[in-house]
Design goal:
Blueprint: H1 3-29, H2 34-40, E1 44-58, H3 80-83, E2 89-104, E3 110-113, H4 115-118, E4 123-127, E5 133-135, E6 137-142, E7 147-151, E8 161-162, E9 173-178, E10 186-197, E11 207-210, E12 222-224, E13 229-239, E14 248-252, H5 253-266, E15 272-273, E16 276-280, H6 283-288, E17 297-302, E18 318-322, E19 325-326, H7 332-338, E20 344-352, E21 355-365, E22 374-375, E23 387-390
Parallel strand pairs: 8-13, 16-22
Antiparallel strand pairs: 1-2, 1-4, 2-3, 3-7, 4-5, 6-7, 9-10, 9-12, 10-11, 11-14, 12-13, 13-14, 13-23, 15-21, 16-17, 17-18, 18-19, 18-20, 20-21
Length: 394
């Protein structure tokens, strides 16, 4: 072997060793979810539901005969000329079944899932990892945040650990566990893609966006951090096909636990109502208001006889802080307002005529008619035919 060939061989071996080292280091930085999954699997549950719905079906002159209500003449039924294809309509009941996921939050048997998983179910069954099947009682649900609370009776129930969501950062690893398409105890991984994401027609939830694969049946299942703590409830996906397309959304666990606490204590959820129409403070508006950067919520209009109307708040004010919390974007304000119970006075910091002021507002309870603080939204929220869908497995 010549010196040149020997040199090339040595360089090749050196580069191979360096490449192997780089690959090993990269692999070492990837999370190993195996122990975390085994430690938490028992606290994750599958949920099946059963209910009835009324449908209207066509009447047939052959109803009750051995033909099963169908014409013996098939598609060439001469009676269709007289009776039509579906006249008259009659109501019928049919069984509707659904499935989803959930997790146990305390040893008393309380289980969290999505409200859309439960719906109007008459029968709810919780399936545990040890193959126990337990009848569940619906304690309550909140459709606005899509959170439902169930209760099961069982011995030695495992529970999940709850995370501090204030420590979440974009780029952190996460693991989703659930029953996509009925495939129970499926784990998928991803990262946090965004925090505080607002979706069309949802003013109350600052979603955690992730790229962990979530599909129908995952709804209500937990989203874990690398410490084995639940950071959110898998709820929706952004898709044009009905299946995972790279964008998933989870309800932050602190919001969910706030809802759970109210349901357990009061049997319902109480939200605050301010009574303003707001819009985003753009870069252009920020320059007009002499703000260092775009922030806050601009009051565009005030509802008559609302808490805002009864306070010193005025159209044109920029709300910078609400109840001690900084308002970074207008989408935050409805969330902050909703977390205040009715008949509670809060301080609101505003920018008016270039000066910062603090006023007090007596927040009232949001009523069943849906009076609420709402951010202005584009009429065309379904961009390019892509829609946000719940991930219930019907």
């Amino acid at each position: 072997m010549t010196v040149g060939k020997r040199y090339i061989t040595q360089v090749g071996l050196f580069l191979s060793a360096v490449l192997l080292l780089v690959v090993q280091q990269a692999v070492a930085q990837l999370p190993d979810w195996s122990k975390l999954f085994e430690d938490n699997k028992a606290a994750v549950v599958s949920i099946t539901t059963e209910g009835t719905e009324v449908v209207r079906g066509g009447w047939s002159p052959f109803e009750g005969f051995s033909f099963g209500g169908n014409s013996p003449f098939g598609d060439n039924d001469p009676f269709s000329f007289f009776f039509g294809d579906g006249a008259p309509q009659k109501e019928q009941e049919r069984i509707v079944r659904g499935a989803g996921s959930g997790f146990i939050i305390d040893k008393k048997g309380y289980v969290i899932t999505n409200a859309h998983v439960i719906g109007d179910a008459d029968k709810i069954t919780v399936h545990l990892a040890d193959r126990r099947e337990l009848k569940a009682e619906l304690i309550g649900m909140d459709e606005k945040t899509d959170v439902a609370v169930l209760k099961i009776a069982g011995d030695k129930l495992p529970v999940v650990k709850i995370a501090d969501v204030s420590k979440l950062k974009v780029g952190q690893w996460v693991m989703a566990v659930g029953s996509p398409f009925g495939l129970d105890y499926t784990a998928t991984q991803g990262i946090i893609s965004s925090l505080g994401r607002n979706l069309p027609n949802d003013n109350f939830t600052p979603f955690i966006q992730t790229d962990a694969a979530v599909n129908p049946g995952n709804s209500g299942g937990p989203l874990f951090n690398t410490d084995g703590e639940v950071i959110g409830i898998n709820s929706q996906i952004y898709t044009s096909t009905g299946s995972y397309a790279g964008v998933s959304f989870a309800i932050p666990i602190d919001l969910a636990m706030h809802i759970v606490e109210q349901i357990r204590e009061d049997g319902k959820v109480s939200r605050g109502w301010l009574g303003v129409q707001i819009q985003e403070v753009t870069a252009t508006l920020a320059e007009t208001f002499d703000l260092d950067k775009p922030m806050g919520a601009l009051v565009a209009s005030i509802v008559e006889d609302s808490p805002a109307d009864k306070s010193d708040l005025k159209v044109g004010d920029v709300i910078l802080k609400f109840n001690g919390q900084e308002v970074i974007s207008s989408s935050q304000l409805p969330i902050l307002v909703s977390r205040v119970k009715g008949n509670e006075e809060v301080k609101v910091e505003i920018l008016r005529n270039g000066k910062r002021e603090t006023i007090k507002v007596m927040i009232e309870a949001l009523d069943d008619e849906g009076r609420k603080t709402a951010a202005s939204k584009s009429a065309d929220s379904n961009i390019l035919g892509v829609a946000v869908e719940e991930t219930k497995n019907d």
